[in-house]
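If it is no trouble, can you show me the amino acids of a protein and the tokens describing how it folds?
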Amino acid sequence: MSTLLDQIKNDMKEAMKAKEVQKRDALRLLLSAFKQVEVDERRELSDEDVSKIIQKQLKQRQDSAAQFKEAGREDLYEKEAAEIAIYSVYMPQQLDDAELEAALKSIIAQVGAESMRDIGKIMGAASKTLSGKADGKRINECAKKLLA
């Protein structure tokens, strides 16, 4: 069993004891997503699987938060922002822009990319290498900037 999954379960229990309703509910949603994958695929989750699911949930929350902000729904925006903060604790440290650029320069050299036509090769290698450390959108934008 995943140590990250155990940590999340323990944090949910602590949130229940401390009567932290928002944190408890956010972690319950996350645990529900884990359970869904376990049941659908009939297997136990590794730490890598758990990280990918958390990343997916974070992306959904960020998209929702942006839509709520645009629609002027501050109450729903704040709820999503709180869930993003709770989920972010369980993600690996994200690369800053300088680290991301250095990693992408290395990947570009490895795959021999020279123009924008090679963006697919870069994204394929980068998504494996930088999984969980940087968002795909950030990787794509930085790669395009480097190839331009």
